[in-house]
Specification:
This protein is of the alpha/beta class. The chain contains eight helices and 17 strands. Helices cover 23% and strands 35% of the residues. The protein has a seven-stranded mixed β-sheet, sandwiched between helices. The chain has a six-stranded antiparallel β-barrel with strand order 1-2-5-4-3-6. Strands 13-14 form a two-stranded antiparallel ribbon. Strand 16 and strand 17 form a beta hairpin. Bound molecules: flavin-adenine dinucleotide and FE2/S2 (inorganic) cluster. Flavin-adenine dinucleotide (FAD) binds next to strand 4, strand 5 and helix 2. Flavin-adenine dinucleotide binds next to strand 4, strand 5 and helix 2.
């Protein structure tokens, strides 16, 4: 079992330095935290809103001097409370937790959708710094919901190729991003695929990676409470997503195929189809 330094699990109250609207349903919140500044892309924090709830959020930005961000989709009670916060307000964080994306492959495909793009934006920033060859594929229902489009377009590197798909055809290719993934994999060889987003999308990307013999890393979402491997609410097969993940390798996913892409657990342990 990994050893968690007490400092990482201690609740810290951070001031919100800035707030950006990314899409009609997603906002980015910038804060400063020394421990998050040392996080690996793919790691997550537990965000506490006083009197409401504590929910897991990936770090969407990991900057120098500990300036970091989370990008929050409006879903229910906790995310609605976070969306109401403004510059100068504060929230609590614990973390960073879990296992992030591995790092160091040269030619990389990144595939994301929805708020799953949050940790992928963070790993892209890091890959750009080492001049990795990155193909970034992202999808959404329509142009307005396509997250981080401006951020990716402004990436200061000739090595990043951006491919977008929208279901209604309002931007980029019309259709599902997984169709584009298949097209690109037929033509080119990659050293690694990183993916995060709706589980059905990641499941298809996993199958395509297997078919084309490319290593893959998938960032999973499960219900989280403790975030340190104790409560068991995040289990998938023999793994605890908060501690063994949220990023899993293709080899690990092959061990949990009866659950991956099929169902997750509710707070009472019952199965919810995906
Ligand atoms: C590792 C990880 C990273 C995540 N990163 C992001 C991110 O970067 N941006 C983002 O917008 N969302 C992210 N999420 C999802 C986010 O945690 C949920 O959308 C949020 O918890 C919803 O809470 P709510 O009270 O607003 O909605 P609710 O109405 O309470 O819940 C709506 C749905 O959100 C999910 N959810 C609720 N509580 C939890 C919980 N404690 N743990 C996990 N899922 C929960 C469930 O599927 C639930 O059905 C991440 C989840 C995980 C596990
Ligand atoms: S959230 Fe408690 S074990 Fe993972």
């Amino acid at each position: 079992m990994s050893v968690y330094p007490i400092a990482v699990n201690r609740l810290r109250i951070v001031d919100i330095l800035d707030v950006f609207r990314e899409s009609p349903s997603v906002k980015t919140f910038v804060f400063r935290d020394r421990l998050c500044g040392r996080a690996m892309p793919g790691q997550f924090v537990m965000v506490w809103v006083a009197g409401v709830d504590e929910v897991p959020m990936s770090l969407s930005g990991i900057g120098s001097g500990g300036v970091c961000s989370i990008s929050v989709g409006l879903v229910g009670e906790a995310t609605e409370a976070i969306h109401k916060l403004e510059k100068g307000d504060c929230f609590g964080i614990r973390g960073p937790f879990g296992r992030g994306f591995s790092f160091g492959r040269r030619k990389v495909m990144i595939v994301g959708g929805g708020t799953g793009l949050a940790p992928l934006a963070a790993i892209t920033d890091k890959l750009v710094k080492v001049n990795a060859d990155v193909t970034f594929l992202f999808g959404a229902k329509n142009k307005d919901e396509l997250l981080f489009h401006d951020r990716m377009s402004k990436v200061p590197s000739r090595e990043v190729r951006v491919i977008a798909a929208t279901e209604d055809g309002s931007y980029g290719f019309q259709g599902l991003i997984t169709d584009m993934v298949e097209e690109v994999l037929k033509r080119e060889r990659f050293d690694m695929i990183y993916t995060c987003g709706p589980e059905q999308m990641m499941y298809k990307v996993f199958l395509l990676a297997e078919k084309h013999h490319v290593p893959v890393e998938v960032s999973l979402e499960r219900l989280m409470r403790c975030a340190i491997g104790l409560c068991g609410s995040c289990v998938i097969g023999k793994y605890r997503v908060c501690k063994d993940g949220p990023v899993f390798s293709g080899e690990q996913l092959r061990e949990v195929m009866e659950e991956f892409g099929r169902f997750k657990r509710d707070f009472d342990g019952s199965k919810i189809p995906i």
